[in-house]
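--- STAGE predict ---
source: upstream dedup step, 1 unique chain passed
mode: sequence only
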Amino acid sequence: MLVEKPFASNAQDAAQMVAAARAADRHLIEGFHYRFHPLFERALTALRSGAIGKIRHIEAVFNANLPDTPGELRYIEELGGGALMDLGCYCMHWIRTVAGDEPTVVSASARCATPASTSTSRPNSRSPAARRATLKCSMQPDDGVLFRRLRVQGDAGVLELDNPVSPHSGATLSIESATPLDAADRLGRRHHVSLPAAATCIEVIEGPRRSR
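--- STAGE serialize ---
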């Protein structure tokens, strides 16, 4: 089962989904397609090879101008509305993937567009490995500009990935003052790279499926 992000509204719902998938003997996959894109793989390879040294701070930002119009799902509390759920889930996924462990929230602030949902969220966290992370997301940014960036500060350099959300539409990866790497559509569209990865996961665990 391929599930649209975010996986669930809370940890309890997520645990129930995992239990149901295990009981039904089915795979349960969260639809963060960017994770399988070649550009993000390049970034992870650079970080893991020590290109910027030991990671000290991770900053993840996703701002998008999403007006609070009647019926807009992103602002409906019962459907898990709010900037952190719709945009911030990407940022948190980047942080968890780069850090390789589970962060602990040490502080947070929010600006509410309506009593039921947040338009801007800014949690700060620390990972067990003493790395610090900052997450910023807004559905009503002051400048109204679409902005998506992952910035990783190490003790020997900086890695920046512009537009990690949808690298298929154009993105850049830079390490310190290195020339940005172009990530055009030739590297593959988002679902063209994530679906084969999901199929491979199923085949590895269950064996190839044969049609009758």
